[in-house]
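The passage that follows is intended for readers who have already worked through the single-chain material. We present the inputs for a multi-component assembly, then the predicted structure in tokenized form, and finally a short commentary. You are encouraged to pause after the input and sketch how you expect the pieces to fit together before reading on.
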Amino acid sequence: MRYFNSSLEQKSGKNWRENSTILSTRFGKFRSIFIRSHRNSKQCLVLTRLSRGRWSKAPIIRIHSSCLFGESLHSTMCDCRQQLDHALQMIGREHGCLIYEFQEGRGVGLERKITAMEAERIHKISTGKAFERLGFKPDLRNYAVAIEAMKRLGVPKTIRIITNNRQKLNALTAAGYKIVERIEPTLTLTLEAARFVRATQAELGQIPYQKIRISKPRRDA
Ligand SMILES: [Zn+2]
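Having made your guess, compare it with the prediction:
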């Protein structure tokens, strides 16, 4: 595979530009490829770990939408960081790729997400209801750029996937991917995050997690 042999790559074509390097993490080394579309300015970051430079038979795929608060600022209000860590751990061990999409706040952006969070807090309503109140659909994310990236990188058509999101499953199936296994993490969440996850799953019609452990609250929380 052209990407995984050299330590520095930049590729550009009519519609795409790609830059890649090796990223060492506590879950192993990943070839990290930033892909930007010239057509619609869409972009994503793909972290790949392959088996001897090639895709394994049914690689593990995670399409992950960004969450600054959860992933970088250690918010205890959602499950995003645990999802990300779990995916990197699994892919680091068993090969596949994580496609990181810059779709903060279900696609509305960080600024509007903060407005929605404040509406949730003040009115004690769910994220979906807060979005509705602000005039947004409950979920604006789409997975077209992730699927384009998978095609460009030659991801095999038979995959395993980490998700409980039916929209992702449907988008991948419609794009011709055969999903042979759906993987989900066992999450250990605060009560607040567990409530958020359950409300999100109900509102967006997602597949409920088999198991959520509740962590003890911190004294300073
Ligand atoms: Zn989050």
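Commentary: The chain has two domains: 2-103+143-214, 111-140. The beta strands are 9-12, 16-25, 28-37, 43-49, 60-65, 96-101, 158-162, 178-183, 187-189, 212-214. How closely did your sketch match?
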